[in-house]
Amino acid sequence: MRPLYETQRLMRGLRRAALQRGVIAILDLGTSKTACLVLRFDDAAAPRTDGVGPMAGQARFRVIGHAVTRSRGVRFGEVDSMGETERAIRTAVQAAQKDAQVRVDHVIVCLSGARPQSFGLHGEAEVEGPMVDGWDIGRALASCEVPDMGPGREVLHAQPVNWLLDHRAGLSDPRGQVGERLATDLHLLSVDGAAIETLLLCLKRCDLECAGIASSAYVAGLSSLVEDEQELGAVCIDMGGGSTGLSIFMKKHMIHADSVRLGGEHVTSDISMGLQVPMAVAERIKTLHGGVVATGKDDRELIPIGGDTGDWEHDRRVVSRTELIGIMRPRMEEILEEVRARLDLAGFDHLPGQSIVLTGGASLIPGLDGLAARILGRRVRMGRPLRVQGLPVAATGAAFSAAVGLTLFAAHPQDEWWDFEMPPDRQSARSFRRAVKWFKDNW
């Protein structure tokens, strides 16, 4: 854990430096689109440098530049072709810099793939001084026993979601309070390390410094869930092009995250194969005429497919909207059934609040909220991202939930494991415990 701990601390340091300079870029690297927003922070309200998190101060910001381009070289929310992805990132960042008329060297990026997996950890430590300080918090976090995440896995988020001080539970910030024993519940999100390393290498090839990485499901929940939903318990379903992300919030913290490797592009692919048309034509048909609920008049609504093959019969084909819905609905049902299975495994039924919010570009298909409510067995709300200052109207739709949430993640970051100093003997103690476990299992 030490190399990852140091890497994340380095990213936090780069973020502080960028915020002090007042300008930073946000990069939403999706399967269907790459969005870049340039943020300018108010110097008078810039966060203090004595920590990162809600308790370290919040910053006012506004969007001064934006750009969107079609993603290339990204599949299932992960980098698939380094050269194509590099070209898309350069195109988006350069266009955003031109719109903002400022140069940006540091970016905060989010990704939707890398097979996320959540773990719940618990740690506790004695309070050494008269009151709780950052050192006590670091020792409590260091006492959490990291589970066996599997080979090649790395930690993307490690956030304390609950603090307990003696007999008092549910504390949001124990610093400065008096007590004898401090305990914490930690949510740890692990991802495929190779996907993270590839993304960092791609940003380096674009001459960009990575000042932070976040899960798209997490930041989409930050921007789409209202305060009551984050407090009582809700799930945000971010339906992207290559994958569908799930994030469950409770007490204003993410307590679980998962991902389904199916998204809107799979629906487009089904239309392309079913109607024998190119992907671009299938995307246009899905956007303009798509749906998942058929009505009586859909049989009479004929959709021209078009084409330029030179075959008169082929290029003047039409298809009824009922046939189009018959192609799209099975795939959307498959995605929602998989989402329901993941929610059941996560124990979503036990939350006091069980709101479900759909967001993301693929959630804009007409009738999807009703289909989701029937399959998931809950009331479903269509989510749109919060409005932030300077955000253009074109970037206020559900497709930009992750990008907008990433701006909130940059301006108001939550405390994470690597924001606190750890005891120097932490690594050796963990190695000793692993050695003891190995002897118990093998002798």
Structure description:
There is one protein chain. This protein is α+β, with helices and mostly antiparallel strands. It contains 13 helices and 18 strands. Strands 3-2-1-6-11 form a 5-stranded mixed β-sheet, sandwiched between helices. The protein has a 5-stranded mixed β-sheet with strand order 14-13-12-17-18, with helices on both faces. Helix 2 (82-100) packs across helix 4 (193-205), helix 7 (264-275) packs across helix 8 and helix 7 (264-275) runs antiparallel to helix 10.
> Which stretches of 5+ consecutive residues score pLDDT under 50?
44-57, 427-440
Q: What CATH architecture label of the domain at 117-191 applies?
A: 2-Layer Sandwich
* CA gyration radius, whole angstroms: 23 Å
Mean pLDDT: 84
The dominant shape is globular
The biggest beta sheet reads: 5 strands, mixed
Tell me, what is the CATH class of the domain at 117-191?
Alpha Beta
State the share of residues found in helices, binned by percent.
Answer: 25-40%
Strand segment count: 18
**Remind me, CATH topology of the domain at 117-191?**
Dna Ligase, domain 1
The number of distinct helices, counting runs of at least 4 residues, comes to 13
Query: How far apart are the first and last residues' alpha carbons, in Å?
Result: 27 Å
**Strand line-up across the major sheet:** 3-2-1-6-11
